[in-house]
Design a protein that fits this description.
Jelly Rolls; 2 domains; alpha+beta; 12 strands
């Protein structure tokens, strides 16, 4: 069965950069850190291509992905406005590079229009994330992982003859960090979904063969 329309998000986030004419490009290599938790903010960022992850470490040293930022997303506006240290670490995925637009904190503070545009975009991001959380602790891990794949498909997917395909920039370890489980559990659930004919993985592309059915499964949980 081909791809079915998804209704996960109100409206797609625009991918055109919103950081003004003084913004410049910055490339991150796979696994490269952009900033560390506790550092003083110096710039505002928007994802141009690829993705970046905001992470924190548990007391035991385990890294957890707090937020995954996709093309069009802006960050970290609150830190730039109040000057407080970054609350999270930002880095590119382990095996995938990323491209960013960058605007200096000074430009943000001096340009009310830039601040307004970024506020509006950030508000849309927050509404979407809160309406469709990925890692709600009360949900079963199967639901959390399926919801994560649906969110990626909604933002990145392209319709193909098989279904809805998108590049999977995250490793199994990172998927596990995002949804709050182990890599072994991610492998087990993906294998189960593949056997049921719901997903397929080939050459770095993950295809949701029946995205509408997957969405129904998460909503029924």
């Amino acid at each position: 069965m081909g791809a079915q329309p998804l209704a996960l998000l109100e409206q797609p986030i625009e991918k055109q950069h919103a950081l003004g004419v003084t913004a410049w490009n910055r490339s991150l290599q796979a696994g490269e850190t952009l900033f560390l938790e506790g550092e003083t903010p110096t710039a505002l960022y928007q994802v141009e291509h690829g993705c970046v992850k905001l992470t924190w470490n548990s007391p035991g040293g385990r890294e957890t992905i707090s937020e995954l930022l996709l093309p069009g997303d802006v960050f970290d506006l609150p830190s730039c406005l109040d000057g407080c240290p970054y609350p999270l670490t930002c880095k590119a995925p382990t095996s995938s590079p990323a491209g960013l637009w960058v605007a200096s904190r000074g430009a943000l503070l001096e340009d009310p229009q830039l601040a307004w545009r970024c506020h509006a975009r950030l508000a849309k991001q927050l509404r979407q994330q809160r309406s469709h959380p990925v890692a709600a602790a009360a949900e079963r891990v199967e639901v959390r992982l399926t919801r994560a794949l649906l969110r990626l498909a909604e933002r990145l997917g392209t319709s193909t003859s098989q279904g809805l395909s998108f590049p999977l920039w995250l490793t199994r370890q990172e998927l596990a960090e995002w949804v709050g489980t182990t890599p072994e559990t991610v492998i087990r659930i993906c294998s189960h979904l593949r056997r049921r004919g719901l997903i397929e993985m080939e050459k770095g592309l993950l295809t949701l063969i029946q995205p509408g059915l997957l969405l129904e499964l998460t909503e029924a949980a």
